[in-house]
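Reopening this one. Same input as before:
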Amino acid sequence: MALVKATMMMELAAAFAAPAADPMKPGKDIAKAFKNYLMMGMNTGGFPTANVVDAPTGMAIGGVFASQLPVGAAIGSQIATALTTMALTYMSGQQIGPPVAAPSHTPQLIQLFSGPQPAGMAFAKELSGILDTWTKTWVVSGLIPGAPPIPFSGPLS
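Same output, byte for byte:
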């Protein structure tokens, strides 16, 4: 399989098609859509994603929405931090440690949450684009079994 941004975008678009009564729901929806997207990925060694933990991230992002922060920069920064924490739980076959995931998505998320919020589909497209671009910069390292083992390191695909 491969990382397919359109799949994440459509899941987010469905989640944001109507306003949510529960402020925790959008956070959970973002984390779930991002997890589903990541589960389609493969590391450079050709091994599929094994797991990524989304529940704490969904609660953290939901908490950001529930707190109704008045400044978009704070919202974007806190959501970026929650997503970075989620990235560190990413595991794929033969991986030897958490991915190296620089916070390069933070400025884009700050910008997204600092202006007027676009309609659901436009928001989903923008958010999925930010997450897709960021994910493809992660570096995952591992060892292919053998004598001797073959190291690999590179972005997800």
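So the earlier flakiness isn't reproducible anymore. For the record, The chain has a mean pLDDT of 94.
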